[in-house]
Write a structure and sequence with these properties.
mainly alpha
């Protein structure tokens, strides 16, 4: 698992690096990057499911790793949303500039480039969460197990009467 997590962290970092390019990004490239971010989120959720089904999920480190994977998924989803907003704004700006040639285009909200930078930062956070999950899974497991049973019965007056 730890090696898989390392690969996913590297993937998130690579996507973040691609998003930090300057200048306009063609719509087909932006759409591919949205899909890549969504795939990363989906993979992180699949990792949560896989780890949750394993015995490792009952350890403190396993629980911490689950939190990291859930956060990685969240950051990747938010990055995909920011990229989707960037694409929508870029297309809307293009539509407005074509409908009124020569008139300045006023962008409502953050400019597309700023949204791509925000998505890159979110993907950096996803990579950090994967790195942390990697460290937790590579470390020897702690002996404490998290109880998955109900609390022990108390000796209340009702229980003694039975």
């Amino acid at each position: 698992m730890a090696e898989d997590y390392r690969q996913r962290a590297a993937h998130a970092t690579a996507l973040s690096t691609q998003l930090r390019t300057s200048g306009p990004v063609p719509m087909n490239v932006l759409a591919q990057r949205i899909i890549m971010a969504q795939d990363l989120s989906h993979t992180a959720l699949a990792d949560v499911l896989s780890l949750a089904r394993s015995d490792a999920a009952r350890t403190e480190d396993g629980l911490e790793a689950l939190v990291c994977l859930a956060r990685a998924s969240q950051y990747a989803q938010e990055a995909a949303a920011a990229l989707g907003t960037s694409m929508t704004q870029s297309l809307d700006d293009l539509r407005r500039s074509r409908s009124t040639p020569g008139a300045p285009v006023v962008t409502v909200g953050p400019p597309p480039r700023q949204l791509r930078q925000a998505a890159a930062t979110l993907l950096d956070h996803a990579a950090q969460q994967y790195a942390q999950a990697t460290a937790l899974q590579a470390a020897p497991t702690k002996p404490q197990q998290i109880a998955r049973t109900a609390a022990p019965a108390t000796t209340s007056s009702t229980a003694r009467r039975r």
